[in-house]
């Protein structure tokens, strides 16, 4: 391990997709929702908006935690927005909004930006960056849009689509890291950890064969 203290990663997000992505990569985070009001943050550029929101989420959770002498706590905040046709799109307001978006997006492309902010509470330092991925939307039918919106899935995610759920069938492809579209880029997280003189392997956990318990490595 890059530090003598055991590491704890706190994910400042209620997104089950982000948590699942970390778990699939061998990282078991604690989860603490930030409670940040995203509607109060305004920016002209999608990259600036998602990074500011990620920063606010990480800081809000960090402020609620207390550093201990026997543990090195890292807080990770993330936020995603879609840049499309000159607009910045977060979560749809309602089903009608999601429907209108898909009618505009089908057969076209947008850029999904995900901001990341990683705070090291012990050393009072942070590393942050934005990952961007081009998304190519399929030319879906009105019936497909209606059925997708009716599931409720697009109402809960930035840009009104997923890549790891029902919406994955409505994407023709991407250019970049798929994790960015899920809401968390693992290669970018690796880089942020390196900026804090840590390795992503320091956060790995293991599952004993045939068992469900997760034990820390080492």
From TrEMBL:
Highest taxon above the source species: Bacteria
Signal peptide: none
EC number: 3.6.1.9
First-tier enzyme category under EC: hydrolase
SUPFAM superfamilies the UniProt entry points to: ITPase-like
Family annotation (Gene3D superfamilies): 3.90.950.10
Entry GO MF terms: nucleoside triphosphate diphosphatase activity
UniProt-annotated catalytic positions: 79 (proton acceptor)
Cofactor requirement: a divalent metal cation
Gene Ontology biological-process entries: nucleotide metabolic process
Annotated localization: Cytoplasm
Pfam families to which the protein is assigned, alphabetical: Maf
GO cellular component: cytoplasm
Catalysed reactions, as listed in the record: a 2'-deoxyribonucleoside 5'-triphosphate + H2O = a 2'-deoxyribonucleoside 5'-phosphate + diphosphate + H(+); a ribonucleoside 5'-triphosphate + H2O = a ribonucleoside 5'-phosphate + diphosphate + H(+)
Keyword terms: Cytoplasm, Hydrolase, Nucleotide metabolism
UniProt similarity note: Belongs to the Maf family.
NCBIfam families listed in its UniProt record: maf
Described function: Nucleoside triphosphate pyrophosphatase. May have a dual role in cell division arrest and in preventing the incorporation of modified nucleotides into cellular nucleic acids.
Name of protein: Nucleoside triphosphate pyrophosphatase
């Amino acid at each position: 391990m890059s530090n003598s203290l055991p590491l704890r990663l706190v994910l400042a997000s209620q997104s089950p997709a982000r948590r699942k992505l970390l778990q699939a990569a061998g990282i078991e985070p604690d989860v603490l929702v930030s409670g940040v009001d995203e509607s109060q943050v305004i920016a002209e550029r999608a990259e600036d908006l998602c990074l500011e929101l990620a920063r606010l989420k990480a800081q809000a959770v960090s402020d609620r935690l207390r550093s201990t002498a026997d543990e090195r706590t890292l807080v990770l905040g993330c936020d995603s927005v879609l840049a499309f046709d000159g607009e910045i799109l977060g979560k749809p307001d309602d089903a009608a909004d999601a429907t209108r978006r898909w009618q505009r997006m089908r057969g076209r492309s947008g850029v999904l930006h995900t901001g990341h902010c990683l705070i090291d509470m012990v050393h009072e330092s942070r590393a942050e960056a934005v990952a961007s991925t081009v998304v190519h939307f399929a030319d879906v039918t009105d019936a497909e849009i209606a059925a997708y919106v009716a599931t409720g899935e697009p109402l809960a995610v930035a840009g009104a689509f997923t890549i790891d759920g029902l919406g994955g069938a409505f994407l023709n492809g991407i250019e970049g890291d798929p994790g960015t579209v899920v809401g968390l880029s693992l290669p970018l997280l690796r880089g942020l950890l390196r900026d804090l003189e840590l390795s992503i392997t320091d956060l790995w956990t293991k599952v004993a064969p045939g068992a469900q318990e997760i034990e820390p490595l080492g």
